[in-house]
Design brief:
heterodimer, A: mainly alpha, Rna Polymerase Sigma Factor, Chain: A, Arc Repressor Mutant, subunit A, 74% helix, elongated, disordered C terminus, B: alpha+beta, Protein Transport Mog1p, Chain A, Jelly Rolls, 4 domains, seven-stranded antiparallel beta sheet, 40 strands, 15% helix, globular, disordered N terminus
């Protein structure tokens, strides 16, 4: 069914492409949001990826690879989106939260906030690898194929990204002991 | 036995964190994209796919229809080019192709393409893209085995060639090229009826196919040449007349044909006592015998269970195992292909009659994967070869991966001798049955599966859904529990993330659980058939406080299941129970915790709902239904009510079946055929409306309609029907609260 839609769309059938876009827009947005951490930027990146898909669909040699090809367009649209605004880091807003009576909940919120900030500090390329690996479960070979990079590069990006994120998570895991020391 | 070591590049905390992000796109995105399409020009098709010479018939026709579809639109758009019938008909001798054509515009054929492999040259325009073949055409083929010429405004041509077999006539080659059972409406007719066409100074034959696609074939000396043509769909395509101009420039020089570089000499011998065979291999490669016998038929190709011969660019692996009593080699191979498909194309997935035999030093093997590109894009892809063979009671698997000289694999096979009598490895599965007869059936009310179990065991259905990647047996309410004091079976399921591949989920789950066999690029080992899907025994008899632990998973597009056995049980019994599993993803209930209640201010009923859901009561003026939006999905529950009055309930149903608000094929048909559905403590009737449904139920003279509505046709975005049915069971009626 999808292959037929791809074939029709690459021949200029807008209705077919609309069906394709409708069935993929959520996944594109979900991927873009996780990389960009910003709903508006994710929306822009998703739109750009879908525009690019329509424009370049005829260059897709194998219609069966449409899904992977579109993911690659989304990731590259995210790169462009992230680089298009040098004020990227200035847009980060600290998430305030009321102190909670349930320490675990408060700690969870704090950890997510710190993880969010640590993630935003990664390069767009690192974020893409983390999302493909940790969210969609892709192995490095598939990540490399999707992004058009050598597997070693994917591994390197993932290694350094995970190391930075772990630093935040591990610090959070040590929080109770730190609190005890302070209270003592 | 499974050991525990973590993938250093995976952290489940990050995975959990990412899973909290939104999965639904704002509607404005699609609206914007659709609105902009008319103003965005598309780039044009650049090449014509090659035909698959020995592709199975359905696949071949499908491929050709696809090619035809690519070119038909362009054909119809070109005024004056007639005769492009779906069913080609012979044309008078001396003229070929479409019967009426315009005079061919002059082409700038000032450049020459010299085929580096096939011994011919052809004139081309300077701005045409030309991609020489990187593989040699031999049997089942792919696009990289032809020289491909792409026309700038869509369409193109491709050229392949092969030597006739010793003693083979041209007619025999043609008969093999297009066997009688392949003459149909899309391919051409009997080759002897193909009209002549001029290719350089050689007269060949033209086969007209669907649309404006066709093939010019010729033989020069002992070689066959095939020139495929497709017009493409551009505004100014290369017409058939121009294609003939191009063909006329061909100059054949069969003496210039170059074979791929000869494979390295097989200077060393390897004898496998474990798996019972010997072979020769290149002297610069290194042989590493297996140090353990096979435990999975999806073994790690770099692991200890396979004999491995490798150099930096390629890797050959071999293993074998005894066939189980009564099992056939063909059935084993088909199952192996299914388990390990990874996108493989025929013949691995083809019928045994279509398998390609290749010679061994003793006997034959079947070439199941012939140079399939794997992993990456472009001409530099790593390729894969796979053959299976049988001797005695044993089946052999020979696989080669890497940047390969394609003849090397055949050379190695030709050196291979199978000696099953010397093999020492045993069958994979072993164990003894200690579980009684499976004489009871359990159908999970929530998790979309059923299985059989001993009647003496107790079964307790879960009451909640399994959340995310958390350990599935951590929450006793999130999995069905079947067993005794000494052994427990836990079964649960979850929906996959949108766009998540089943294999990817298995790897992700495997990593999140800290198990082995989750390394990058390698499919999880221990594969087996589970409920019609591919299952993986991720934990296979690991010691547990109560005995042994087994953890099996299965995933299909959109859905995954986990079955955990813990206690006094052996693998053989686990296999017996799992063999009875039937997976029914549509029956999976995916309701979040229903922690609050919506009470209708108008219609005298209440229903449970999740914290995150939003409700909107009916408004007398604007909206006659109560509405509950299931956040995170595109599904809404809407509820309306009307008094029965003097009508019968059946009359109301009949009226609803004749609604003109939905397409005729979506009304649900005759109400007498509508199944019963539980709504609270009442039984109503279920009207299916394509991507929606309504439960009609009568309560004390009132007729309630509970609707399952979805704003898209994307089933992955719905709260599924089973969940909606489960939700309706929470309804309570109190007609005394109705406000009229």
């Amino acid at each position: 069914m999808q292959i037929e839609l791809v074939e029709r769309a690459r021949r200029g059938d807008q209705e077919a492409f609309t069906s394709l876009a409708a069935s993929h827009v959520d996944a594109c947005y979900a991927l873009a949001f996780r990389i960009l951490r910003d709903p508006h930027r994710a929306q822009d990146a998703t739109q750009q990826a879908l525009f690019g898909a329509w424009r370049d669909l005829a260059t897709l040699r194998d219609p069966e690879r449409f899904d992977a090809w579109l993911r690659r367009l989304v990731v590259h649209a995210c790169y462009a989106e992230a680089r298009g605004d040098r004020r990227w880091t200035a847009r980060i807003q600290a998430i305030s939260f009321e102190p909670s009576n349930t320490p675990d909940v408060a700690r969870g919120v704090a950890a997510r906030d710190e993880l969010d900030q640590a993630f935003r500090a990664l390069s767009p390329e690192q974020r893409a690898v983390v999302v493909l690996h940790h969210h969609l479960g892709y192995p490095l070979t598939e990540i490399a194929a999707t992004l058009g990079i050598p597997e070693g590069t994917a591994r390197s990006r993932l290694h350094y990204a995970v190391r930075q994120l772990r630093a935040v998570l591990d610090a959070d895991d040590r929080l109770p002991e730190t609190s005890k020391e302070r209270s003592a | 036995m499974t050991t525990f070591e973590r993938d250093p590049l995976f952290d489940p905390r990050i995975s959990d964190w990412l899973e909290r992000d939104p999965d639904i796109a704002p509607g404005a995105i699609l609206e914007t994209v659709v609105a902009a399409l008319p103003s965005i020009p598309q780039r044009r098709v650049s090449s014509v796919p090659w035909r698959f010479r020995t592709m199975s018939m359905p696949a071949r026709v499908a491929a050709l229809i696809a090619v035809g579809a690519l070119v038909i639109a362009g054909a119809l758009a070109i005024a004056g080019i007639g005769g492009r019938h779906p069913t080609p008909s012979p044309v008078p001798s001396g003229t070929v192709g479409p019967s009426t054509v315009p005079s061919a515009a002059a082409l700038d054929l000032s450049s020459t393409f010299q085929s580096p492999q096939y011994g011919y040259s052809i004139a081309v325009a300077p701005d045409w893209q030309v991609a020489p073949a990187t593989l040699t055409w031999s049997g089942p083929d792919n696009n990289y085995s032809v020289d491909a010429i792409s026309f700038p405004d869509g369409g193109g041509m491709s050229i392949g060639s092969e030597a006739l077999l010793p003693g083979q006539t041209w007619e025999q080659w043609l008969a093999e090229f297009q066997p009688p059972d392949m003459h149909d409406n899309c391919l051409g007719a009997e080759p002897s009826t193909w009209p002549p066409i001029q290719i350089g100074n050689v007269t060949g034959a033209w086969q007209q196919m669907c649309g404006d696609h066709g093939e010019a074939v010729a033989h020069v000396g002992d070689r066959a040449y095939v020139f495929t043509y497709g017009i493409g769909d551009g505004a100014a395509p290369i017409t058939f007349e121009q294609f003939k101009q191009i063909l006329a420039t061909v100059q054949f020089d069969p003496s210039a044909v170059t074979s791929p570089a000869p494979p390295p000499a097989l200077g060393k011998d390897f004898v496998s006592g474990r798996y019972g065979y010997s072979l020769s291999y290149p002297g610069d490669a290194t042989a590493t015998p297996a140090t353990a016998s096979i435990t999975s038929w999806a073994p790690d190709q770099a692991g200890p269970e396979v004999d491995r011969i490798a150099d930096p660019s390629a890797r050959l692996t071999v293993w074998s195992e005894p066939l189980e009593p009564g099992a056939s080699y063909e059935g084993w191979t088909q199952a192996y292909c299914e388990i390990n498909q990874n996108g493989w194309t025929p013949p691995c997935a083809d019928a045994p009659a279509n398998w390609r035999e290749v010679s061994l030093a003793s006997g034959v093997a079947n070439l199941m994967v012939d140079g399939e590109s794997v992993g990456t894009y472009g001409h530099s892809e790593s390729r894969q070869f796979l053959a299976t063979a049988t001797a005695g009671d044993r089946v052999y698997v020979i696989q080669m991966d890497g940047d390969l000289n394609e003849n090397l694999f055949l050379e190695v096979l030709a050196s291979m001798r199978l000696d099953p009598t010397s093999a020492t490895s045993t069958a994979r599965a072993a164990g003894s049955a200690s579980v009684p007869v499976l004489d009871a059936a359990f159908t999970s009310p929530r998790h979309g599966y059923s299985l059989r179990y001993p009647a003496g065991w107790s079964a307790t259905a879960s009451t909640t859904s399994w959340k995310g990647n958390a350990q599935p047996d951590a929450d006793p309410t999130a999995s069905d529990r079947i067993g005794t004091d000494s052994v427990q079976l836990m079964g649960t399921d979850r929906r996959l993330l949108k766009d998540q591949l089943p294999d990817a989920w298995v790897r992700l789950y495997c990593r999140s659980r800290g198990l082995t066999d989750c390394t990058d690029g390698a499919p999880p080992s221990k594969a087996f058939a589970l409920g019609g899907a591919i299952g993986y025994m991720l934990v296979d008899g690991a010691p547990s406080p109560d005995g042994k632990r087994f953890e099996a998973v299965a995933a299909v597009p959109g859905h995954a299941w986990v079955f955990i056995f813990d206690g006094a049980i052996e693998r053989a019994d686990v296999d017996r129970i799992l063999a009875t599993v039937v997976l029914r993803p549509d029956d999976s209930v995916e309701l979040p915790a229903l922690t609050k209640t919506f009470t209708s201010p108008t219609y005298g009923y209440s229903v449970r709902m999740a914290d995150s859901w939003t409700s909107s009561p009916a408004s007398a003026n604007d909206e006659p239904t109560d509405q509950i939006q299931m956040t995170g999905t595109d599904t809404m529950l809407y509820v309306g009510m009307e008094s029965l009055g003097s009508r019968s309930f059946d009359a109301v149903l009949l009226r609803d079946s004749e609604t003109t608000d939905v397409p005729a094929e979506c009304t649900g048909g005759d109400p007498a055929t509508w199944p019963e559905i539980q709504v609270g403590d009442r039984v109503g009737r279920l009207q299916m409306l394509c991507n929606a449904a309504t439960a009609h139920v009568e309560v004390d003279g009132e007729v309630y309609d509970f609707g399952w509505g979805n704003s898209t046709f994307d089933i992955d975005s719905h709260m599924n029907l089973a969940s909606w049915k489960e939700l309706l069971k929470t309804v309570t009626f109190d007609p005394s609260k109705i406000k009229r």
